[in-house]
Amino acid sequence: MTETPAKLLVVDDDPAIRKLIHRFLGKQQYQMESAADGKTALALFDKFQPDLVILDVNLPDATGYELCREMQSRTGVYVLMLTSRSDESDKVKGFMQGADDYLTKPFSLIELGVRVSAILKRHRGRSPRDLPQPSLKFGALMIDPDRHEVTLDDQLITLTALEFNLLCFLATHPNRVWNRQELLQRVWDYDYVGDQRVVDVHIGQIRKKLENAGAQDQIIQTVRGVGYRFNPPDVVDQF
User: Fold this and answer.
1) How do strand 101-104 and strand 136-138 relate by DSSP bridges?
2) Is the pLDDT score of 160 beyond 90?
3) Which residue of 31, 37, 108, 115 pairs with 7 in a disulfide if CB–CB is 3.0 to 4.6 A?
C-alpha cells in the first residue's frame, strides 16, 4: 500500500522564497501549498490540513508567533519557523509559542529538507516494534502515549506535540539523567544543529504547565552540569 505524501504549507511574504521552497520540497514528493499572508494561510490551513507548516516570522498582517499559536490550537500541527532574526530572544519566543524547529535566513535547502524529514518522522509516530505503549500513571499524573494526552488530577494539560514527546520520553526512563545532546537525538530524532538550549525552553514550558495544573513537586529535575531527570512523584503504574 502506497503511503500518502505528507502535506506542507509554506507561509512567507517573499515570493522568491516561497517558490524556492515549494519547488525544492515538491520534488521530494510532498504535497505543497503556500500563502503570502496570515489571512490566506489560515484559510488554506483549515482546507488543506497540513502535517507541517514552514512559517515566516514577519508577515504583512500577522506575526509568525501568532499564527503558530493559532494553528497549533486547532490541530497540534508541527511548525518550522523561518526568520531573518538571529537573536536568541526571538528563537526562544518562537519555541514558547510551540514551534518545533527554527531556521535563520539565509538557509541551506538541504538543511531545510533534513529538518522537515525529521519532524515528519516524529509526526507519523512510533515504529511498529514500539507499539503498543502502555499509559503511565505517576500518582495523579497520567500520560497516555496513544491518545497524546497528559492529565493531572483528571485535568487535561495542553502540550505542544514536541513537549508531549519530550515529557513522554523522560517519563518512560524515570530517574535516568539525560544531557541536552542525548535528548535532541532521542526526541528531535536527528543531529540538531542549532542552539542546544532549545531543550531548556521546552523543559521550562512543560514545568510551567504542570505547575499551573497544580503539580506540587518539580517532576522534571535539573541535574546541574549534566542535564535533566524525570522524578516520579509516586510509584509508576502501567496499564
Assistant:
1) unpaired
2) no
3) 31
Please state the domain count of the chain. 2
Q: Which of 95, 123, 151 is at the close of a domain? A: 123
Exposed e or buried b per residue across 174-198, where buried means at least 16 C-beta atoms within 10 angstroms of its C-beta: eeeebebeebbeebbeeebeeeeeb
User: Do 63 and 85 share a domain, yes or no?
Assistant: yes
Q: What is the pLDDT of residues 31-69, one digit of tens each?
A: 999 999 999 999 999 999 999 999 999 999 999 999 998
How far apart, in whole angstroms, are the C-alpha atoms of residue 112 and residue 226? 30
Q: How far is 97 from 83, CA to CA, in rounded Å?
A: 15
Residues 6+ apart with CB under 8 A from 214: 152, 153, 155
pTM of the model: 0.70
Share of the chain above pLDDT 70, in %: 86
Q: Do both 105 and 53 map to the same domain?
A: yes
Kindly state whether residue 1 falls inside one of the protein's structural domains. Answer: no
Question: 3-class SS at 123?
Answer: helix
Domain boundary among 67, 90, 123: 123
Q: How far does CA 23 lie from the centroid of its chain?
A: 25
Whether residues 162 and 107 fall in one domain: no
Distance CA 88, CA 107 (A): 17
Q: Which domain holds residue 28?
A: 7-123
pLDDT for position 92:
72
